[in-house]
Amino acid sequence: MARSNSIRIIGGEFRGRRLGFPDVSGLRPTADRLRETLFNWLQGETEGASCLDLFAGSGALGLEALSRGAKMVRMVDQSRAVIRQLEQNVRLLGVQERAEIVATDGMRLLRKEADRQFDLVFLDPPFARSWLAQACQDLEDNGWLKPQSWIYLEQDSHHDWPPLPAGWQLHREAKAGQAGCRLLSRAIMHG
Questions:
Q1: Are the C-beta atoms of residues 14 and 67 closer than 8 Å to each other?
Q2: Residue 110 CA: distances (Å) to CA of 13, 19, 84, 85, 163
Q3: pLDDT tens across 52-79, in order?
Q4: pLDDT category, 16, cuts 50, 70, 90?
Q5: Structural domain containing residue 90
Q6: In a domain, 98, yes or no
């Protein structure tokens, strides 16, 4: 049986809504169970947050954050089909004023000086790529994070986790099927 190309919003304002995503090679939405776990970990942190969903794909993480009261979510992807679907889903939910959809290469974007800082960053690159270490370092080096931010990483659970930039700490971790995830906190004290 062909798998349905839809995700379900798990909690918040749009709980239970199903949204489509395109059939793009390597696109793998974050499993419901991992999303539920993540947003339980983030209890109270999503409301009013500015979020960056760097390899947006299906939009599962960014749309879930919007449903749970994020003030703003920037969803980045380089696939035209993905961008069109994200734009459609944002319109369906009526959250255009809180969603910014950017068609670009996420890794290239991070190499630039940040144009804003984020409370919460989702890094779930294609499993076939080894981008997490560089993405974490670029987030830190180029000013994308607030002094106290949350960073979510997802990768193939068989891979070793990359070294973390100074000031980042492991908050929680979990596994579901082939996916492993970590929630990191960044607490940089300026003094």
A1: yes
A2: 30, 28, 22, 23, 18
A3: 999 999 999 999 999 999 999 999 999 9
A4: very high
A5: 6-22+31-187
A6: yes
Phi-psi region of 171 (alpha: psi -120 to 50; beta: other; left: phi over 0): alpha
Please enumerate, as own/partner, the contacts of 133-136 that have beta carbons within 8 Å and a separation of 24 or more.
Answer: 133/162, 133/163, 134/107, 134/110, 135/54, 135/106, 135/107, 135/110, 136/162, 136/164, 136/165, 136/168
Q: How far apart are CA 1 and CA 113, in angstroms?
A: 46
Instruction: Indicate the number of domains in the chain.
Output: 1
Residue 1 lies in a domain: no
CA atoms within 13 A on the CB side of 14: 23
Tokens of 146: 């607030």
Instruction: Please state, for a pLDDT cut of 70, what percent of the chain lies above it.
Output: 96
Kindly report the CATH number assigned to the domain that includes residue 63: 3.40.50.150
pTM of the predicted protein model: 0.94
Residue with tokens 């068609």: 103
